[in-house]
Amino acid sequence: MNIDRFIAESSTSTYPSLRLTAPRTCVRVLPRKSDPDLPFVEVYRHFLQDYITVPNFIKAPQCLLTPECPGCELASRLAAKGNSEAARRVSAKRRFVVWVIDRTPTSETNGKICTLEVSPSTKEKFVSEVKRWHYDFVSLDSGCVVEILRVQRGRGADYDVKFVTQASGDGSFRIAPDPLSEEELREYENLPDLEEYLASLRPSLEDFRRALDLSPIEEPLPFSKEPEVVSEQATISSQEVRPTTQKEKVAPPDLPECFGSFGVEKKQCATCPFQEACLTELMSKGDVAKDE
Ligand SMILES: [Zn+2]
């Protein structure tokens, strides 16, 4: 194996990935040139920090979205062994990515263009703010700064999303526009297409497999660390079950759609067999901190 090539191929992006670790993060979301109405791009990611121990390979690689995806295969193998909890944790999770300029005053990447990745529930909070204010928050000249507040929830974290406002003369609050500077506009013009950029960060099948193979973990770890993200249940397709030496295969767990939102469907919750796991899921909901 050519180690240098392996490391170079697995190296990090040219744009920093903004991490929502601080209690307050401020971003200026940028529109996508190819589709200014839809700034968010969907990705699926496997969180494999307990399975990929080889250095210099991303611990949370994007799902390859093919039946051969090594992350999906790992989830299927764990499910086949009856370890549905571990299978659920490593199965691909839906995420949303946007281009942003970091406007957090104390941040290392302040003023820089970064990618920001959030869970579906945090993306919904952006949608709620747009509905509340009916405001084009990504517009290059009249878009606004968005404040993301991290709220600790049990072992995980939840995020509140607020458009930054200013008091006007009559005592009411209005959105404070944050026009891009000339330099920022030039940088924006040079931005690659977000979908293509994200695709370029996806590991090759070969490297992904090798990273898992080089990490000598036979059995799943007990997840002593805080889960980094458990945002949405991804189903494990039976087509993705890789043939194993196991004689018997156990079908992947068939979780209800409302899994992780305990209390929303109160009537069903009382008799639901997934009650306990659902509560655990709810407690551990949060966004990824460690990323590319
Ligand atoms: Zn996958």
Description of the molecule:
With 292 residues, the protein is α+β, with helices and mostly antiparallel strands. The chain has a domain at 3-19 and 29-140 and 180-254: Replication Fork Single-Stranded DNA Binding Protein (Alpha-Beta Complex). 27% of the residues lie in helices and 18% in strands. The protein contains 9 helices and 9 strands. The strands form 2 sheets. Strands 1, 2, 3, 4, 5, 6 and 7 form a 7-stranded mixed β-sheet that branches. Strand 8 and strand 9 form a beta hairpin. Helix 2 runs antiparallel to helix 3 (84-90). The protein is globular and about 65 Å long. It starts with a helix and ends in a 9-residue tail after the last helix. Bound molecules: zinc ion.
List strands and helices in order, with pairings:
Elements: H1 3-9, E1 17-18, E2 24-29, E3 41-45, H2 70-80, H3 84-90, E4 93-102, E5 113-118, H4 120-133, E6 145-153, E7 156-163, E8 165-167, E9 173-175, H5 182-189, H6 194-200, H7 205-213, H8 266-271, H9 275-283
Parallel strand pairs: 1-5
Antiparallel strand pairs: 2-4, 2-6, 3-4, 4-5, 6-7, 8-9
The structure holds zinc ion.
Gist of the model:
The protein is an alpha+beta fold and 292 residues long. The protein is built from 9 helices and 9 strands.
H/E element order: HEEEHHEEHEEEEHHHHH
Which distinct ligands sit in these coordinates?
zinc ion
N-to-C CA distance: 23 Å
Q: How many distinct helices?
A: 9
**Beta content:** 15-25%
Q: What would CATH call the architecture of the domain at 3-19 and 29-140 and 180-254?
A: Alpha-Beta Complex
Radius of gyration over C-alpha positions, nearest whole angstrom: 21 Å
Main sheet attributes: strand count, strand direction, barrel closure: 7 strands, mixed
